[in-house]
Amino acid sequence: MEKDHFKILLIDDDEDDYFLVKGMLSEVRSSNFELQWVATYEEGLAAIRKCVHDAYLLDYRLGIRDGVELIRESVAEGCDATIIMLTGQGGRGVDLEAMHAGAADYLVKSALNKDLLERSIRYSIERKRTERDLRKARDELEKRVLERTRDLEAATLALSESEERNRILVESALDIIYSISASGNILGANPAFETITGWSVKDWIGQDIRPLIHPEDLPAVLDSYRDLTDVGTLPHTELRILSESGEYRTIECRSVPRFENGKLATIIGTARDITERKRMEEALRKAHDELEIRVRERTAELAGANEALKAEIVERMRMEEALRLDEMRLEALWELSRMSEGSEEQVARFVLDQQLKITGSTLGSIEIMTEEGAVFSIQSSGEERLGGFWATVTKAVRTDLQKELKPLVINQVRESGMLMRSVEGPASLKSIMSVPVVEDDKIAAVVTLANKNTGYDESDVRQVTLLMDAMWQHIQRQRAENALREAENLMRIMADSLPALVSYIDTNERYRFVNRAYEYKYGLPADRILGCRIDEIVSPHYYEIAHPHVEQALNGQHVEFEMEVNSEDGKSFLSVWYIPSLDHTGRVEGFFALVQDLTERKRHEMEAQQRRDELAHVARVATMGELSSSLAHELGQPLTGILSNAQAARRFLEWEEPDLEEIGNALDDIVEDSLRAGSVIKKLRSMLKKKDFEKTSIDVNALVHETLKLVASDALKKRISIEADLAPDLPNAAGDWTQLQQVLLNLILNGFDAMVKVEGGPRLLTVRTSLDVAGTICVAVIDTGPGVDCEHMDRVFDPFFTTKIEGIGMGLPISRYILETHKGLLWAERNPDCGMTFSFSLPSGTNCEPN
C-alpha cells in the first residue's frame, strides 16, 4: 500500500528544534513527511501566504513576537492552512489562546514524541481536508439524500440518542469547588465533592489532600502548585482522585492562589468530573477513526461526519462558555476579596453587578436582612421601569423562599401563578431566579434576578450561589472586624482608666502597647514609649530585678511576683503579672504586663502588723499577771531549796570533820535549783519581751508539757485536774515558740475560767495532740465548763467579744491571728455533754513561713 506523502514547514528560530522534529518524522513508517524550515516570523508569514505546504508547525516564541500573533495575522488574510502550535511551556491560557486564534492543534515540546507528532499532523490535515471535502460534497449529498434516507435516519437517530445522553449527563453534573491551604490541607469543598467522590466533606476537612490523588499524578500536581507563586493560576489540569468505592475518578481542575503578606495562603479552584467524558472521548476517537475510513469508502457518510463535527464544535463552545463564566466568577471573587474598605452597600452593589453580568439578566436586586429584621435593598437601574411592582415581586419571592430555604427558578412567569398581576410592555417579567443565603434556618440575604433571554439553569444557580456565599462571608468578616475594632477601642479605654501600669511587650522586649498610667508614671507620651525596650524606660535596678521574670514569660510561663524597688522617693513595693500571648501554633508572640503599686498598702499592712504585735505583747503581759501566783510558786520552790541546801552545807562545814560528800550533794542541789529558777525567769522574760517573729523547729508535745508546768499551781488553787493526752512520734512544727505558747496558754486559762463556776461536777481540762492523714498537727484544749451559748458561737473570735466580766475580748482574736501567720487554723466546738473544745492546727515540717 502506497504511503501518504505530506509536505510540512517548521517555523522555529531554534535549529535544534528543526533537527528534533525532523528526526521524529523520519522514524514514522506509516507516512512520508517532507520537512522544510524557516527561522523568522516574516519568512513564516510569507510561506503561509503561498499555501504550498500541507501543514505548518509553528513555535510559540519567534523573537520579539509569538506564534499566536502569526496565526491571527494569517487567518486575518484569509489563509485556511493547517497550523499546529509548538511550545516549550505549558503556560496558562496558551493552549486556549492558540486554538481561539485558529490553530488546529496544540503540542508541548517536553511531552512530544513521534507518535503524538505524526497523529497530530495527520489528524489536523485530514480534518482540514474533511472540512473542504464536506463543503464540496454538501451539494452532491443533497442530491443523493433521497437515496440514502434510511442510512441518514439511522445515523440521525443514533446522533439524537447520543446528544440526549450528553444533555442529561451535562445537566446532572456539578463541579467541585474547593479550598486548600498552602500546606495541602483541605479547608472546604461544596456538596459536589460528596456527589462525585462519595466521601463526606466533613471527614476530609483539615485532612491532607495527597492521599486522594493517584500516585502517578501526584508529582505533576505538586510541581504545578509549586509554580503557583510565579504563574498566579493554572491551566486545566487533569488528574485522578480516589472515590469512596475505591475507584479513581478523572477530574479537570483550574486553581487560583490567594496570597497574604506576599505568601501563598490558600488555593481556590474548581474541579469537574470528566471520567465519563474521557470514556466518551475514547469512544468518539474510535468512532472518528472508523468514520475516517468510511469517508474514503463511502461519500454518503460525510453527512454523519459533518454532523459529528458540528456536535463537537457545539460542545466545545459550551465548554468554552462554561469556562468563561467560571473565570468571570473567579475574577469577581478575587475582586471581592480585595474590597476590605468597602461598605456592605458597596459590596452588595458590586456582587449584584457581577451577577447581572454573568447571568445576562437585565433586572436584579440584593436584599440583606439586618439584626432588627429590616431590609436594605440594592437594586439595578432597570428596576425603575417597574416602580412598586418589583417590590411586590421580591416580597412574593421571599415568602416562597422562606418555606423551603432553597433557590427558586421560574422561567415562565406568566404561567407560574406566583405574581398578583402582570406588567405589559417593555417592563414585563419573563423569567425570575432567586437565591437565598440561609443562616440559622433564616434568610440572611437574598438576590433576585430577572429576564435572562434564554432562561435560567443549574449553572446560573451555581454561579450566583457561590457569589452570594462569598458576599455573605465577606460581610460577616467585615462585621467581625468592626466588632473587634470596637472591642479593642473599649479595651484601650478600660486600660487607660486603670491606675495600674498595663502594657504589651513583644519578644524583643519592646513596648507595643501602654496605657495612660505609663504617661503619668514616666512623664512621657505613649507614642514615645512605644517601640522602646524595657531597659530604656525603667531604671537599671528595676530591670535587673524584673529581667529573669521577663525571660520566663517569653518562654511561655505565667509569672506573678512582688518586687521591692529603690527610687529617689524611697522604696516602692510592686505586684507584677506577666501573661504570655501565643499564636495559633502555640509560639510566644509577646506578653501582657500588669504592674500595680503596693507601696501604700504595704505601709498600712506594716503599721497594722506592728499594732497587732504590740497588742499580742500586751496580752502576754496580762496573761503573766494572771499567772503571778503560779510563777511565784515556780520560783519559790527552787529558792527554798537553795536556802535549805546552803544552810545544810554550812552546818556540815562547822563539824570537826566536815562530810565533804554531803556538802558536794548540797552544792549540786543548789546548782540544779538555781538553773531551774533561771529557766523560769528566762521564759518569763521571753514571754514579756517584744520581738519579731522567729521561726524555729518546735516539739509540740514539749511545748504542751512546759506550758502545763506554768499553770500547774493555778490549777491546784482552782481545784482543776489536768490531763495530757499526747500522740507519740509527733513530728516537729516550724514557728515561734513564744507566740505558740501564748496561744496554748490563752486557751488553757480560758478553760480554767470557764470551770471555776462549776459546782458539783468534774473540773477536768484535757490537752490532746494528734496527727491527721494530711500530716497536719492538731492540738485540742477540752474543758468541762458550761460552754458558750449557741447564739454566741459565731462571735467567739470577734474582737472585744467576751463572756468574762473582767475580760476585754482580745485573747482569741490575737490567738487566731498568730496561727494564721503560722499558716494554721483555730476553731471552737461545743462538746456533746458539757464544756467546749478549742482546737488549732499547724503544718508539720520546717518550711512554715509567716504571712
Care to describe what's here?
Helix 6 runs parallel beside helix 12, helix 12 packs antiparallel against helix 13 and helix 25 runs antiparallel to helix 26. The chain has 26 helices and 29 strands. The protein has a five-stranded parallel sheet, with helices on both faces. The protein has a five-stranded antiparallel sheet with strand order 9-8-12-11-10. With 851 residues, it is an alpha+beta fold. Residues 420-426 and 847-851 have low confidence and may be disordered. The radius of gyration is 51 Å and the shape is elongated. Strand 20 and strand 21 form a beta hairpin. The protein starts with a strand and ends in an 8-residue tail after the last strand.
Global shape: elongated
**Biggest sheet layout:** 5 strands, parallel
Distance between the termini: 112 Å
The overall pLDDT average reads 77
What is the count of helical runs? 26
Fraction of residues in β-strands: 15-25%
SS-derived structural category: alpha+beta
Q: How helix-rich are the residues, as a percent range?
A: 40-55%
Using only C-alpha atoms, the radius of gyration works out to: 51 Å
pLDDT < 50 stretches: 420-426, 847-851
Main sheet: which strands, in order across?
A: 2-1-3-6-7
β-strand number: 29
